Structures are given as structure tokens and as C-alpha cells.
Amino acid sequence: MIKKILLFIVFTLSIQHIQAQEEFITLWKPYSQSSTPGTVDAPVQSANNEIWFPGIGENYTITWEEVNYPQHSGTIPNVTSDKQVLINFGTSLNPIPADALYKVKVSNGSGTFKQIQFANNTAGWLFNGDANKVLEIQQWGNIKWQSMRSAFSYCGLLQLTASDSPDLSKATDVSYMFYNAREFIGNASMANWPTSKIKNFEYMFSGPIASPVSSTFNAPVGSWDTSSAENFSYMFYGKKFFNQNLNSWNTSKVTDMSYMFSFTRDFNQPLSNWNTSQVTNMSSMFYMNKNFNQNLDSWNTSNVTDISYMFAETENFNQPLNSWDTSQVINMTFLFHYNMNFNQPLNNWDTSSATDISHIFHGCTAFNQPLDLWDTSKVTTIALMFSGATRFNQSLETWNLPLLTTADSVFTNSGLDCNNYSKTIVGWANNPNTASNINLGSLASLSYSSDIIDQREVLINKGWIFSNDVPGQCRFLAVSEAGSKESGSIYPNPAHHIIFIRNMADIQSYVIMDATGRISGKGVVTDGTVNVESLAPGNYFLQLISKEKIHPFKFIKK
What we know:
Blueprint: H1 2-22, E1 24-28, E2 50-53, E3 55-66, E4 69-81, E5 85-88, E6 102-107, E7 112-116, E8 119-120, E9 126-127, E10 134-139, E11 159-160, H2 418-430, E12 439-442, E13 447-448, H3 453-461, E14 465-467, E15 470-471, H4 479-485, E16 489-491, E17 498-502, E18 509-514, E19 519-524, E20 529-531, E21 538-545, E22 550-557
Parallel strand pairs: 10-11, 12-14, 13-15
Antiparallel strand pairs: 1-6, 1-10, 2-5, 3-4, 3-6, 3-7, 8-9, 16-17, 17-20, 18-19, 18-21, 21-22
Helix pairs in contact: 2-3
């Protein structure tokens, strides 16, 4: 008989232990004095012995007990809620009621517990639960989470002490999961989270944009299975101390990486293994990351349309990017803004789709690379592009700017010398497609050759405004003169396949423009020839570029 009783007790305890392992357990302090992110969107606000629990499910069970006073407990069976449940803990047994803590345990009961969501940002932030009163996630249990979107958003005091992992087999969304959870650190158990089904990681650990958070979050997430991931935007935004190796992540389906590591001050890990072939948005990806300096030249950027602010104010970044396919990039504004170390070749970039290249090298005091091969035929703004780029001293004479509308302060406090500034002015003046009515802003400290006064006047007559530039001491052979006085020539003309260059041994590169001024081809001259086989029949302008000048020719493609 005694043996049967003992077996019954053991069986009962085993069942209780199994049930305990199945529960989702959180720790609360109803009398929390922390700042409230906002009033809870509920009929009434909770009292100091109550909480709004933001649970979603049908016929699930909630049990609770006061910490250190297990006799003070309660059960709420058959709970069905699509937003929240008010839990009243009654009178605390703690002699200091303000210090009372409560464990809240949720199980499926006779139904299903699906989701917890402290906030909802579908139409501005609305708060479903008392985010300022929850302190810990102690156990995930066996709940099959339907979604983790905004699960613990704005839970400013939240910590993770659970050693198990959430069951994410039915979840595809963890966006905003710990958004603005200011003190959330995470723990080692996060390395084991099953994330293979997750598509949306947007804002998962991010702080608010206007005030980046400074928690010491640096959880080991490098082993996560991200094979379904599509959105990484803002994922680690503001996590200053985050510095985990993510190079093994599967990024083959990701389309958005914008702001992903922005304001992650310490992050400096290799990402060279990432497959970025589907990414379209890399805007601000490393913005304000002070330490990042990893080689990304192997990335496939063939679908990227936005790289604005990508390396702005990264300070240390100075890695090669010349192999990138930028043919689809439309927005490049502020790309390297105030990156004071960057000085890498970019002349191979295909900029034929770019419309905004303003501020790209603004404040880039180390940058001085040729950009004469860039296709600027669709560019509308170059405002402040080289402002404060004190070492930049390259000619932009080959740039074709038919759609330009804004160029304010493009060369303000740049390093352009008299010769390269003069070349640039002449090249733009001699291009009949150069836009009209452009204000270059302040050109103080820049000087131009007295030989190019006529070309400068051409632009002035087209409505261009030059402010504070002055005649300098350099001498310059104008492009029109170079074509008429030198013995160099091209043949045959008309041409079918190859154009040969005669008596010009110092030619380095070429640009071909059609009759409308649009760039039809460009490249490096290596054997004294230019291949025109791919051009459609018609009339073309050919610019042969040497170290000192450009040589213009007209030719007909048969």
C-alpha cells in the first residue's frame, strides 16, 4: 500500500514538473516606478496591485504567485483575449507592498496561447500591456508562438533569464520584438533560438531613431539560421556594444539591410561571406559606426538602388569597393559623408542610374581619386558633393550634366587647384547638353586660368552663377584648341568595329557620347584603340583623355 502511495506521489510530481516546464513564465513588479512609455490602450489603467497582461489566445490558463509567498496565488482558467487581460493580485503579503514581485505563468490550458504583444505600431504606437512593470522572461515553455512582432516593445526593464528557447516553428515575424527595451541584454541561450522560419527581423533589437539606446546588448546570435530572412533593416540600430560575428548568416533572400548596423559603435566583424544578390536597400547600413572597417568588395550589389548614407561618418572605413555593380543605384547622397579616412578608387562604378550624388564626399578630407569615367547623364543634384574634401583635386571635365538642377557649394572648400578647376569648367562649357541656370555657391579659394575666361562666360550666359572664384596663375590649353592644334587623329571615320588612335601615345581613357550627350561607352585605352562595335549606327562624340587634357573628336558609326 505504501509503495502504491509513493508511486502515486512520484507520478503526480512528475506530471506537475512536466506541466511546469510547459509554462511561459514572466516576472512582474506591479508597483513599478519606472517611466511609462505611454498609457495602456485599455478601459482603465492598472492599479499598483494589477497588471495589464498583453496575451492573445483562446481558452488558455494563467496562474500567478507572489515571489517568496507561494501561498498567495491564483488561477484564471479559460482565458480568451485578442489584446490584453487585467490581472489583479489582491493584497500583497510582502511587508513592503511596493517591493512585491509576481510570477505569471501561462499555459495552453484547454486551448491555445498564441502571442504576447506589449505594443502595436500599425497606426502609431499603442500600448497593450504594462511594459514598465515586466522585469524578466524566466521560461519560454512549450508555447508555439504565432508571431513575435512587437512582443516586448518598450519593456524598458526587461531581462532574459530563461535557459530554454522559444518555439518559433510557426512564427515568421520577430520585428520590433525588443524594440526600445532599453536595458535588455539577452543571455547565452539566445544562441540556440530556432529562427529558420523567420522572414522579418526588422527593428528586432533597435532603439528609437531620435534617441539611439545604449544598452550593453551583445548576445550570441551568430549561429542563427537566417535562411528565410528577407528584412534586416534597423535590426541592431543603436546597440552600441554589439560585436558578434555574423559571417555565417544566410542572407540569400534578404532585400533590405538599411540602417542594420547604424549607431552600433563597436561592431567590426567580417561580412564578406554574405550573399547580397537580392538586396535593394543598403541605405545608412553602417551610418555612424565608428569602428567598422571590413572588406566588402566581393558583395553582389547588382540589385541595390539605394546606398545613401551607407558609410557616412564611419570614420575608420577605408576598404576597396571598386568591384561593386552600381548600375541600378539611384540614390548615392551622403554616401561617405564625413568619412575622413576613405580614399579608395571608384572610377569603375556604373553610375548610369544615379540621380542624387549630393554630399557623397562632403567632409571627406582624405579622398582624392579620379571620377572622370562616371556617367552623370541622369544626375539632378551634386550639391556639396566635394564640400570640405580638402584633398580632392581631380578634373570632372568629362561629366555630362544635361539634367542637373542643383550644384550649390559643390566645390566649397575643396582641394581643386587652378588647373583641374579650369579643366572642369571648360569641359562643362564645351558640352552643349550641360544644363542651364545652375548656382555653384561659394567658390572661395578656387582660381581659374585666364585662358578659360571665354568658356566660363559660356556658362554664365547659360545662367550659371560663380561666386568668389578668381583668376589664377595656371595656363591651360582649352579643349577646342587641343583638338585643332595637335597632330593627333583617329581613323577610320566612319568606323565599323575599331577606332585607331594616331600620334597620341599618352591617352589613358575614353568617353563616347551620342548626339544627345548621353554616354554610350567609356573605358581604359590600353592598345591605342577604341572598340565601337556595340554602338548603334549614328553620329558620336569621342573624348580621348590624357593626364593633362581631353582630345575631342566626332565620328560616324556605320
